[in-house]
Amino acid sequence: MSAYIHTSIGNGTGLIVLDRPKALNSLSLDMVRAMTRALLAWRDDAAVDAVVVRSSSEKAFCAGGDIRFFYEAGRTSPQNGSALVEDFFTEEYSLNHLVHFYPKPYIALMDGVVMGGGMGVAQAGPEARVRIVTDKTKMAMPEVNIGLFPDVGGSYFLSRAPGALGYYLGVTGITINAADALYAGLADHYAPLADRAALDALLTAAPGASLPAALAAYAAAHDAGDSVLAANRAAIDRHFSAGSVPAIVASLQADGGEFALNTLDVMATRSPLMMCITHELIKRGATLDVADCLRMERALVRRNFENGEVIEGVRALVIDKDNQPKWHPATLDAVTEEMVQAMFAPVWPDYAHPLRSLD
């Protein structure tokens, strides 16, 4: 097992604790494998009625994949990335699929930073999931900020957010809080830190089989407050339903209000190509099931490493920290429809796709 994943069983509950606090629980391949092994072992274990996934720290549930590792491995073999990068994404997306269809209640306590890969191990399917957010929750699919796209099933769960919220969250990569996550359908319950002792006691004392009902009763007494997404919903739907990223930008520019100007400022820092890729990804994801969304993302991530956009984004924001990524193309008007569609071209024949066994 990974040194950063701790598992135990008690009172009918299988507990997974992410414990890599210095890296905000960023997922390594070993961590993905450790979580997968535990969930597979517990799936048919009569001693486990529910699973709880949480962090050892309130600072972060999981900040995503280990992007420093992606950078170093991608530079080693810039055309295709290393074999370990290939393994990481194949196994991470397989874990996302396992989580989505887990047959037992799957409870994610999303304290602190919940981004990218952290969303992938929290967004279980509607039949099993209990997603808890707190005062410290900082949720995002911020991949466009580093030259990537919202993967780990983002094409599925963002495309099913109300109205144009999925396009807004994916194309801008903006960070939201607990109230926003609840409003967007990306969380189920709110747990205030002021009442954390009661929540922790409940998670320990309630038998696994009764945890979902007990958590629902607990959460009914707590209100996360007003949602900024709700306040801006009309503007979000108006602008982000425009049909393309250039059309969204034109709509925002024609508006000129505070929300529009702030959104334009954010989008100006993102990869123009990856914003357009993300828009197309969410559009396509709306017509696909979970397995096909993950297969689409798996091919796209290979194209992304071939393109090199993510390597440059990680260099600028994480490695050198100059915050001056040299995006290619550098401007939105230089992104063509041919560039976007080429990124979605099949990488493998269907029979050889790394995720061909997902159903």
TrEMBL record:
Molecular function terms from GO: 3-hydroxyisobutyryl-CoA hydrolase activity; isomerase activity
SUPFAM superfamilies: ClpP/crotonase (SSF52096)
NCBIfam families for the chain: PRK05617.1
Database matches in Pfam families: ECH_2
Family matches, as CDD domains: crotonase-like (cd06558)
PANTHER family: 3-HYDROXYISOBUTYRYL-COA HYDROLASE, 3-HYDROXYISOBUTYRYL-COA HYDROLASE-RELATED
One GO biological process term: L-valine catabolic process
Lineage, top ranks: Bacteria, Pseudomonadati, Pseudomonadota, Betaproteobacteria, Burkholderiales
Keywords, alphabetical: Hydrolase, Isomerase
Name of the protein: Enoyl-CoA hydratase/isomerase family protein
Superkingdom in the source lineage: Bacteria
Residues annotated as domain Enoyl-CoA hydratase/isomerase: 14-344
